[in-house]
Design goal:
The protein has 230 residues and is mainly alpha-helical. The chain is 60% helix and 3% strand.
């Protein structure tokens, strides 16, 4: 067993900032889509201002978290340009080994084969492909979110940058719905992600959970994708 430095400090910082910004965006987004002013724990809309529980405040928090998410994505792509180890979200679909590894990973996840039979990977190919799709989803959320945000100032920066996506998706309401549906897909990804990370740690003892804190994984034998750290 050998400790291998996998995740850079920049990637780990981005991971946790990304996590908290998505969490805030999802909670505030649910409120914006369906304000729960009234309820056993809520406040009637008439008295919401007295409690500082206003749609304006929730939207402001949502937009601040959106700016943080956008800044985090820009930072993520910048560190990918400067470090080879930070490009492991790119799936090598042009290689036969990629698809062979995908089949092996799926068999393992379906309990057809055991963890001990699989080849060690720094980052499994199925995870690479899933992260690639996640980045596309996050970019979509940024584009649709700031596209709708720009409608408050049709001549402003965000409207000129992402305003085209609203007519492209068929109008404001379809854009809102796509924004809502993809948000749920990201949350579904997060749930599955946590399950597989914990499962990987229990079955292979690789330090998968702690690796996003200290940067190290514990691997047995030379990883198939070791060249990605060189």
């Amino acid at each position: 067993m050998e400790r291998v430095y996998v995740f850079s400090m920049g990637l780990r910082i981005w991971h946790w900032i990304n996590f908290f910004s998505i969490l805030v965006l999802f909670i505030t987004g649910l409120y914006i889509g369906n304000p729960f002013f009234i309820g056993s724990q809520g406040v009637e809309a008439t008295y919401a201002y007295e409690k500082s529980l206003t749609m304006g405040l929730i939207r402001e928090i949502h937009f601040i978290a959106g700016y943080i998410l956008l800044a985090g994505l820009i930072f993520r792509f910048l560190i990918a340009l400067s470090s080879k180890r930070d490009r492991m979200f790119i799936p090598k679909v042009w290689k036969a080994e990629f698809w062979f590894s995908v089949i092996e990973s799926v068999k393992e996840y379906l309990f057809i084969s055991s963890a001990k039979d699989s080849y060690p990977h720094i980052r499994p190919t199925t995870a690479r492909f899933a992260y690639f799709l996640l980045y596309i989803a996050l970019l979509f959320m940024v584009m649709t979110g700031f596209g709708m945000y720009g409608m408050s100032n049709p001549e402003g920066f965000w409207a000129s940058l992402f305003g085209w996506i609203i007519p492209f998706l068929g109008g404001e309401f379809p854009t809102h719905m796509w924004h809502h549906w993809v948000a749920w897909l990201i949350i579904l990804f997060a749930i599955v992600h946590v399950y597989f990370v914990v499962r990987e740690d229990f079955t292979k003892k690789t330090g998968e959970v702690s690796s996003m804190i200290n940067g190290y994984k514990v691997l047995k034998g030379k990883p198939v994708d070791a060249e990605d750290l060189e």
